[in-house]
């Protein structure tokens, strides 16, 4: 009897987790089939139950913490003039993109996001720069994130040109690469003074960490957190579905 109770508890926890993303939506037939498979596995291997319950409880706890964090920082993320953005000026959907100019997958995602905003005038992308791979650059008192934010703040019309040059470089930026971008975009003064944007980058780290994220890129789209790179063909239907929910 105790074994059956544990199995029932584990399956109930799985059902609860399955319902988290869309609280009002019934389980699909595929999800129902998977739950039956899970119950069968647990009946055959009851030693897995304790570990499964622990993992599920940790997952649920993180989901709850994430919801609280999103509410706490909603205005900072979605209505913050200090964060660089592109796309619609009056969006129906805003995508929050945690990104890093030194991250190869972030560089691959950027043109995908730009294409989506060009094709859909209801979408805006807000970039939250989290330079995980390079917080400091040897020989210069700034980094790519602080530089980009300073251009956004003081030369918004010239921002996308700087942004595109920063994205285009293969590998990590160094003093020479940042100075080259500043030279060709006539933003040398903004590069030199960009360490004043360090508090904004530090705040970005704080929000990123409190959301439980540990790598870039990572996106917030509607009520979903999407870690990692997604190609255009996978990201487009997610964006379309999020827009549909807002209609």
Automatic annotation (TrEMBL):
<keyword id="KW-0732">Signal</keyword>
<dbReference type="InterPro" id="IPR051470">
    <property type="entry name" value="Thiol:disulfide_interchange"/>
</dbReference>
<feature type="signal peptide">
    <location>
        <begin position="1"/>
        <end position="24"/>
    </location>
</feature>
<protein>
    <submittedName>
        <fullName>Hypothetical outer membrane protein</fullName>
    </submittedName>
</protein>
<dbReference type="InterPro" id="IPR036249">
    <property type="entry name" value="Thioredoxin-like_sf"/>
</dbReference>
<dbReference type="InterPro" id="IPR012336">
    <property type="entry name" value="Thioredoxin-like_fold"/>
</dbReference>
<dbReference type="InterPro" id="IPR017937">
    <property type="entry name" value="Thioredoxin_CS"/>
</dbReference>
<keyword id="KW-0676">Redox-active center</keyword>
<dbReference type="Pfam" id="PF13098">
    <property type="entry name" value="Thioredoxin_2"/>
</dbReference>
<feature type="domain" description="Thioredoxin">
    <location>
        <begin position="18"/>
        <end position="244"/>
    </location>
</feature>
<dbReference type="InterPro" id="IPR013766">
    <property type="entry name" value="Thioredoxin_domain"/>
</dbReference>
<dbReference type="GO" id="GO:0015036">
    <property type="term" value="F:disulfide oxidoreductase activity"/>
</dbReference>
